[in-house]
Amino acid sequence: MAATSQTTGWSGGRSTSRVIVMDASVMSPKPSTPARTPVDRCASPHAVTPSIPTSTSATTTRGSEEDQDRRLTPYRSARSGRSDGSGGGVGTAQSSVVPPVPASSPLRLLHVHAHPDDESSKGAASTARYVSEGVDVLVVTLTGGERGSVLNPAMDRPEVWADITAIRRAEMDRAREILGIRQEWLGFVDSGFPEGDPPPPLPDGCFAVVPLEEPVARLSALIRSFRPHVVTTYDENGGYPHPDHVRCHEVTVAAVPAAADPGYRRADGEPWQVLKLYYHHAFHRQRTVALHEEMLRRGLESPYTERLAQWPPDPGHDRRITTRVRCADHFATRDAALLAHETQIDPHGAWFACPREVHEAAWPTEDYELVHSVVPAPVPEDDLFAGVRPLVADGPPLSVPGE
Q1: Is residue 48 one of the residues assigned to a domain?
Q2: Edge-to-edge strands, sheet with 323-326
Q3: For 65-69, 179-183, 350-354, which range has the lowest pLDDT when averaged over its residues?
Q4: What is the DSSP string of 21-39?
Q5: Residue 367, beta-bridge partner list
Q6: Number of domains in the chain
Q7: How does strand 276-280 pair with strand 365-373?
Q8: Three-state DSSP class for residue 357
Q9: Quick check: helix, strand or coil at residue 205?
Q10: 19 lies in a domain?
Q11: CB atoms within 10 A of CB 84
């Protein structure tokens, strides 16, 4: 499979951004081709390829026999850390043609999250920024949060526990209105967070144990319906090792290429090529250090002292961040959306231990990792739609460099 490398130098000789362009067959194998792992031109030691079982259970009533025999081919994380520590290139698994975006159509952003409240705790300020710019933002919530804990002491009451599913849906409605987004439920049941040594088995029928092709089929159909230009989700660790978060990653990295594959579940709509796929990196050590140091500089007691003492530096993880979206002007909206999830967020707890003005001064961005792009995407960047905005125009399809 052919690959070409394009380089764009930075002034001052600080670093060089790389864009790796790979053959179209990496992402969309032909129907007759057996399943294979996409070529990873710049693999990270963190990369994990989910195993997707062959099954016809999700496709027995749709599509041809050829469709039913297909296996889904997931993305793999494609990154490289250069020896100078300045970041890495972005692997791009792509079709040979990028579909044009009509001038009358807004940019579209899809966030894929595991539970209600995740949309407010990860990327909410950058979401609010993009909504203010006219971007059409859809959050898809894979589970109902039915097995979530009540983390706000003021809400830890019998009547709340008795109606937790309805309450969490109402909280999601309020957060949706605050953020100005659209939101869809994918309809799976929260797996809960197993605790114990060893941890207990996951509940029957929960999201983390249903066959992977079931949520992949639902999410790929939604992608074809909404037609997002950019999709975000969690990294291979789920951001933290909740089974639903890890499963959310696995589902998304399989559904994005499946939605673009014209041979996959053709009854679910016209194929749609997502142009960029990102992972959230909401809570990382660099950010925490910056908040800690700014609080000390202002003579405030830092809530992060003990945590940082037990959190060793991880330069490899730091290099994964490719994209920092400035959104401090929208931190107030983020906080309001968080507080809408009353069962999950204690207004007097850890979420608000760092004053907003400290956060605005010390770390005014929300951070992401670009893992796949079908448009030229030199990194670092400061916009999830970098390389996409020029395509918002009428005209013939844009040929991808390196095809």
Answers
A1: no
A2: 182-188, 136-143, 108-113, 230-233, 276-280, 365-373, 323-326
A3: 65-69
A4: EE-GGGTS--TTSPP-PPP
A5: 324
A6: 1
A7: antiparallel
A8: helix
A9: coil
A10: no
A11: 9
Alpha-helical regions (H) of 88-201: 118-121, 124-132, 158-162, 164-179
Question: Is 299 a domain residue?
Answer: yes
Instruction: Using alpha carbons, select from 181, 168, 258 the residue that is nearest to residue 222.
Output: 258
What distance in Å separates the CA atoms of residue 399 and residue 397, rounded to the nearest whole number?
Answer: 6
Is the link from the previous residue into 312 a cis peptide, with omega within 30 of 0?
Answer: no
Residue 135 sits in which domain range? 88-388
70, part of any domain: no
Q: pLDDT for 82-122, tens place per residue?
A: 333 333 334 433 333 444 444 456 899 999 999 999 999 99
First to last CA, the chain: 11
Torsion of CA 87, 368, 279, 15, to 10 degrees: -10
15 in Cβ contact with 87 (< 8 Å):
yes
Between residues 7 and 186, which one has the greater pLDDT?
Answer: 186
Which pTM value belongs to this model? 0.78
pLDDT of the residue at 106: 85
Residue 70 DSSP SS3? coil
Domain CATH number, residue 279? 3.40.50.10320
pLDDT digits (tens, 9 = 90+) for 135-161: 999 999 999 999 999 999 999 999 999
